[in-house]
Specification:
By secondary structure, the protein is α+β, with helices and mostly antiparallel strands. The protein has a domain of 64 residues: Alpha-Beta Plaits, CATH 3.30.70.60. It is built from two helices and four strands. It has a four-stranded antiparallel β-sheet, covered by helices on one side. A hairpin with a 2-residue loop joins β2 and β3. This is 30S ribosomal protein S6. Keywords: Ribonucleoprotein, Ribosomal protein, RNA-binding, rRNA-binding.
Length: 94
């Protein structure tokens, strides 16, 4: 298992909708054998430039350990989820 962090920006929406998106990815990692160490919710922030006609987004970061296959699935699902404006997955150095 390797250490990773994923940062993603969720479209601005009501709190329930935002929490549902975050929970979706939390469950995706856990159900595929990953282990989440920490979740940082930065909250709604102004974007440096408009992304998909949005000037704000809800920032969230997961710190977790998982196998590389989980990362491929996480990346695939984030790309097809309409609520995600941007995401970035980073492998942490050991």
């Amino acid at each position: 298992m390797r250490k990773y962090e994923v940062m993603f920006i969720v479209k601005p929406a009501e709190e329930e909708a935002t929490n549902a998106v975050i929970t979706k990815f939390e469950n995706l990692i856990l159900n595929n054998g990953g282990n989440i160490e920490k979740i940082d919710r930065w909250g709604k922030k102004r974007l440096a430039y408009e992304i998909k006609d949005f000037a704000e987004g809800f920032y969230c970061i997961f710190y977790f350990t998982a196998e590389p296959a989980v990362i491929a699935e996480l990346d695939r699902v984030m790309k097809i989820t309409d609520e995600i404006l941007k995401h970035m997955i980073i492998k942490e150095d050991e």
